[in-house]
Amino acid sequence: MKVSFPHMGHTWVGIHALFTELGVDYVMPPFISGRTLSLAVQHSPSGLCIPFKYTLGNFIEALDLGADTLLQAGGAGICRLGRYAQLQEYALKEMGYDFRMVKLGVSENKLKSTLSMFREVSDNSPWLRVWSAFRFAIAKIAVLDDLERMVHKVRPREIDKGNATRIFQEAIKAADSAGGYAALKAVKRDYTQKLQAVPLDPDADPLIVRVTGEFYVVLEPFSNLDVEIELGKLGVEVHRKTFVSGWTKFSLFLNPLGVNENARLHKAAMPYLSRDVGGDGWESVGEKVLHSKDSDGIVHLLPFTCMPEIIAQNIMPSTKEDIPVLSIICDEQMGKAGLQTRLEAFVDLLRRRKRAGRRLVVTHH
Fold this sequence. Notes:
Layout: E1 2-4, H1 11-22, E2 25-26, H2 34-41, H3 50-64, E3 69-74, H4 81-94, E4 100-105, H5 110-121, H6 127-154, H7 163-177, H8 181-196, E5 207-213, H9 215-219, H10 227-233, E6 236-239, H11 244-251, H12 261-269, H13 281-290, E7 297-303, H14 307-315, E8 325-330, H15 336-355
Parallel strand pairs: 1-2, 1-3, 3-4, 5-6, 5-7, 7-8
Helix pairs in contact: 1-6, 1-7, 2-3, 3-4, 6-7, 6-8, 6-11, 7-8, 12-13, 13-14
């Protein structure tokens, strides 16, 4: 059995660790590129969202590298993600590929369903071994998530632009190579020190911008054209709720402290949206309401045709909270130059507004 799973940000580090610990032959697809998208567009209905297309393209690349078992997230939620596995299996078999599709049910049975799937593809490994491998995988992702939060603080303040991004890319490789908890702890310590040593501009006064929206396009830099890096270059400190380690903590495990960021967001959104609309739409509205006082602006990322985020996009201009929102629709037609122009204009608006004490009239995009 040769197993593959599509890319989404740096989650591949955890997936690689998980299957290595379980002794599974893991076929890592190439990192997402223009080729990935080109392959997928040829075999996807045009109206389907960009996460569907990127993951389908990754599956094609993995199958071409010899994979025979594909893992795909699924579930019973309102978002079309719940149908990805079936639609992609049909498309790939129409193309002539011979493989097995295994669906990861992220909304039903949660942790049990997740561990059962990993046990299934590892030839029924003992439960203790599956649990141990899963914990190590999550630990790697959590270390990288913590380092990425540091990167968000360093980027807008660093004197030589690009240092923090380069260090983080090195950290990803180092975390992937870490063979145990001691080595992983050393990676976190070493790269924390490297980020702390980056020369900073003492006069820097970064804007605070929250990046929110649909899970995949927020976490996969290729799909949003490195929007967080571009904001950092413009002197913006990015704040982001969405991290895989955080999602795992609140979605797969029972939280003994009862502290759930999503519950806070849902409560904040209640005056404008009183129920789940699928995906991350409810949370996107809540982020604007909850964080309007501690942020200068919001960048809202959504895939083209994503109904939950379209609902959120249309509600946001109607809320009373006084904070600008820039909605960016992620699609295969999006170009880097156009994105940079929009970000530059948005950041300029935020700076002028901050200088004027938030008195500028804001038009939502």
